[in-house]
Amino acid sequence: MAALWVGLDVGTSGVKAIAVDDNGAVVARGEANYPIQGEGVIAEQDPLHYVDATIAAIAQLGTIEISGIGICGQTPTLVLVDSANNPVTPAITWRDSRAKSESDELKAKFGKSLEQFGVDNVFEPSQLPAKLLWLSRNKPEVLSKARWALLPKDYIALLLTGVAVSDPWSCKGLVSLKTRKPVAEVIEFIGITESLVPPQLDPWQLGGLVTQAGAQEFGLREAIPVAVGWSDALAGMVGIGAPVKAMSFILTGTSDIIGSSHNKKSEPVNGIYQVSSASSPLTIDFGPTQSSGGSLVWLAEESKCSVGELVELAAKAETDAFFLPFIGGERAPLWNSQLRQRFIDLPEIATLGERALAVMKGVCLSDRHVLTYSWKSAEKSDQINLAGANIEHAAWLKARRYVFTEKLIMHKEPQLPALGAAMLAMSAANGEPLVSAFEKLHGEIEVQESVAQGNQDELFARYLAAVELEVKSLES
């Protein structure tokens, strides 16, 4: 039987599974969802939901012979487990912003994190240090029970293999990307011990083999190689080849991941992350937004209709208005959890389709905002690699034509993080370079020429002015 490579994406809204053969053909898919719990600044999940969803997604793949498994997932979502691998508290997701005061305290104490960690912006409320400091102050009894501080993908891998392991990028804020070791002064300040941090390996290395217990729980055979895995953002980049081929890209989802990869030596740009050549074959400058697809979910809830209905209405609408997609704040490049969503220049009598199109334009404008930051290190590209669900829908193409003039390279595979995880599985199991796994397994692409819709530069200038006004209003 032909070798099949399985990628698992333990994402924000659920687990997605994909099985591909040695030629990159998708032979099976699986998917199972779970909720986010909490209101306001609280955004938690039950780690056992990750397990149930993974079991369900794998079962949907059917009876197949698996040669390797790669796992990626949402970061920086914190999963604390005890010595029996049981969760000791709900997972605190990346969307949770309760640790604002702890974030401010870490910034005041340590300043910028670049020198210590080899990457900046690791003291934000969404990141692991602020979360753990909040727990040490508010729920010390939880930390006292914890054996490992993991990410969702690490938790699933632990149950599969019995091995606690992670990668430096996913553990940034606890681990230096330069040394791959915990940063002692930060670890001490947030009130934990270095033993809470799992061992660190490259994402494409072998993490462990499926144990008898793991096989029984997840419906697999024993001894399947399991890769260490990466964040869903970085695995999505693997799926389009960004770590091995220079390009600019936008990966769409609940939030978007935007950036550029290159082989130039450059200093990190304030406002976005840099995955240096110490952690990736090519340097990657990128940033995650707070809410892209999530902005349409917000509008759907406000208007009591489905996201699908909104997108269909937007395809038929026209508007000069746009939206600041700051649902619960904004991450890159602003890193401000106090910002909130707002329509700009939207008439009171606007139709629901006009509102939907304004939201979609705002998402694209925030993508362009991050992309311009990545071009401070990489050369500006005349084409953008685009991936994610619904990228070919007429409404999204219309919204992007309002914002971009570049040629769009459309990656057809809708689950790029899971495909990227499958590439990590091949690399780990066979010991072959990541670029080789990409060349064998990459999906179909289509070139979409950009058709101008209005004055993109003028619209972007209006967006930047509106953002600046919002930021200043918070400072006053």
From TrEMBL:
Keywords, alphabetical: Kinase, Transferase
UniProt keyword Kinase, yes or no: yes
Single GO biological process annotation from the record: carbohydrate metabolic process
Transmembrane segments: none
Positions of the Carbohydrate kinase FGGY C-terminal domain: 252-429
InterPro entries tied to this protein: ATPase_NBD (IPR043129), Carb_kinase_FGGY (IPR000577), FGGY_C (IPR018485), FGGY_Carb_Kinase (IPR050406), FGGY_N (IPR018484)
Residues annotated as domain Carbohydrate kinase FGGY N-terminal: 4-239
GO molecular function, one term: kinase activity
Protein name per Swiss-Prot or TrEMBL: Unannotated protein
Origin species: freshwater metagenome
